[in-house]
Amino acid sequence: MTALVKAELRKLFTTRLWWIMMLVMIVLVAVNLGFLIGLAGVRQNGSAGIPARDTAEWAQLAWSAGSGGAIFTMILGVVLMTSEYRYQTITGTFLTTPRRNHVIVAKLLAGVLVGALFGLVVLVFEAVTVFPAVLLSGGELSLSASRIPQISIGILAMLALYALFGIGLGALVRNQIAGIVGAVVWAYVIEGIFTGIPVLHPIGRWLPGGAAQALMSIDVDTGLGASRWLPAWAGALVLVGYAVVFAVVASATTVRRDIT
Predict the structure, then answer these.
(1) pLDDT digit string (tens) for 200-214?
(2) Any idea which of 36-45, 125-134, 189-198 has the lowest mean pLDDT?
(3) Distance from CA of residue 75 to its chain's centroid?
């Protein structure tokens, strides 16, 4: 199994896509952080807005910006699966390893590792931007008050989960363009609506993005209303459940289908 995982990682890391996606992810997180820094302390019509940079609440929001990298690990998961069909290498892969479920497990493990790598990179980037922003504003950075350790775990779990989601989606649709479009629509439209609008949180909290928000336990009212996420432990269980579902989908849709 170790050799299969290494082979899947080699397939990805010998292309330019992974580091291009990583750079774009960093740019997106930087833009989000730029807005949070620029709008910190600004009130919205006299009501609550983004907290000031010297507060633990602002550190929570800024640190959670790393969760935006999930879309990129999802796309890499889609590519990890669909590129085999696009370039017709799937036949050689299954001839080399006739037990298809072993191949799928290797892809899933590779996806988890890639998601964890992207998560670590984004956390390092946040450390060199968020910490100075708080300290230069005269604030005191408390890891416990700002929940940075818990949010970091949530970001790592979310990026790894979405890589599995991408692999499951890629196994289901096979077409690379359709898979990538589906990933973008899911992340930015479906989940964006149900997790971004507080009144829809009763539904959104059961989606992967909502479960990840629950695990990170972000509880800051920026003027849109209070969040209604699940408890952190329930969010973790929901994420594990989704991971199992994605793995089963990827395995079932690949093992039972004719590859020709």
Answers:
(1) 878 888 888 888 878
(2) 36-45
(3) 10
As a whole number of angstroms, the distance between CA 180 and CA 182 comes to: 5
Closest by CA position to 204, among listed 174, 222, 176, 225: 225
Q: What is the pLDDT of residue 220?
A: 55
What HEC string does 13-81 produce? Answer: HCCCHHHHHHHHHHHHHHHHHHHHHHCCCCCECCECCCCCCCCHHHHHHHHHHHHHHHHHHHHHHHHHH
Nearby residues of 171 by Cβ (< 8 Å), 6 or more positions away = 81, 104, 249, 250, 251, 253, 254
> What is the Cα 195 distance to its own chain's centre?
14
Using the structure block, give the residue that is written with the tokens 């363009």: 177
Q: What is the pLDDT of residues 39-56, one digit of tens each?
A: 776 665 555 567 778 888
The Cα-based distances of 90 to 33, 143, 171, 185, 250 in angstroms read 40, 46, 12, 27, 14
